[in-house]
# Entry
Amino acid sequence: MKLFHAPASPFVRKVMVLLHEAGTTDRVTLVPASGTPLNPGTLPVDRNPLGKIPALERPDGPTLYDSRVITRYLDDLLHAGLYPAAPRLWDTLVIEATADGIAEAAVLMRYEMHVRPEASRSPAWVEAQWGKIARALAALEERWMSHLSGPPDMGQIAVACALGYLDFRHADRTWRAEHPALAAWHAAFDARPALQATAPTA
Ligand code: BEZ
# Structure
């Protein structure tokens, strides 16, 4: 299988963490892909019409995207056990969706500040994206710490990848002071070998 990959993407990282947790990184070949909303570059637009990564090319079926489809597929294929049975599954999926929303808003902020031409950038739009992130961080801190402290699952992995991206691209936003329980959880979860092996790079 081929995984279209960029080392900075928090969505690609979710897939890579799953592979490391399952002990099977040799099942996929990484294909570097890069581009922006203004220029698709080497993004696999022929396999994913949305031109987004990760995308997983399979020998026996259509290319899979987005990250949540890929992680469900690989979890099933590799018996990784990172999606628990219902009813706990519903919590895992909401946490994963919340984390992916944080990552998506953070990536859009990055594009706005570094890809959009300077004259058309909107600081108010950037702050509105941060507002979404702040609400999602508060929800994790207030509602989901007990789940996050349970057995490892894709909800936790997605949160760790989203927080890692905030630290990587938005280190000026000091989220830890307002979310001490989430900060303590992240410090411990981020020490897992699968997280250490997949830290974002430019
Ligand atoms: C980044 O460089 O921040 C980035 C690269 C690929 C996907 C998302 C973010």
